[in-house]
Amino acid sequence: MWSYRWRSPSDTPEAVAARLLRRKEYWMRGDGDGWSDSPGGVRHWGKYGAAGLLLRAPLPRGGSAVLLQHRAPWSHQGGTWAIPGGARDSHETPEHAAVREAWEEAGITADALRVRAELLTMTAPSGWTYTTVVADAESPLATVANRESSELVWVPEDEVTDLPLHPGFALAWQTLRAAPVRLRFAAEPVAPDLPRTVELDDRGFFWLHTQADGPGTEVTVGAEPADDLTAALTKLLS
Known about the structure:
Elements: H1 13-26, E1 35-37, E2 43-45, E3 50-58, E4 64-71, E5 81-82, E6 85-87, H2 94-106, E7 114-123, E8 129-136, E9 149-156, H3 167-176, E10 178-185, E11 196-200, E12 204-209, E13 217-221, H4 228-237
Parallel strand pairs: 3-8, 10-12, 10-13
Antiparallel strand pairs: 1-2, 3-4, 3-6, 4-5, 4-9, 7-8, 11-12
């Protein structure tokens, strides 16, 4: 099957400069680096918890891809796939930590993404937590891997489960994956801002796009709502 797993070039002058900068920053470790111990000897990385960035971008024909990190063999759960992420420092919000980790591990800058939601995706008896920050980019951005990654790949959303996922991410993915919705508008949308990720209470995440031949359920927004999903999206987008 044809795949849109997109590996970006990483040897431009800008990419080399970014790598050198991150090598310097690597030794400026934050106060969150360290293990959190739970009963039974279970350990989680991050003294103040951890956070990661699930970054989604549009593909041709209305689909979506997420940026995944192939973890370096030497790292915890090396060889598996997950999102860029790591320990939170004591002064950081989950969003700050996730965006910082995306910069350090993938070269993604804060101005290139738009945060859509935060979701607590794991807790431990010690009080340790992992928060996934969900964000969108306008396109599959170029990336620069650091030593924690074997590679960084934009993976089509429906191909994520084909990969050997980090166990924690595999569990979280069931909640984080976005169902595609193909939108039609009964009138000109006030603020289209599409394609994009949205989170609806008790329904999870949806990827909204307007490609007529694209994937997902078709929903007409702006007319008399035909069901609860249409009503929720009409309210959100009006």
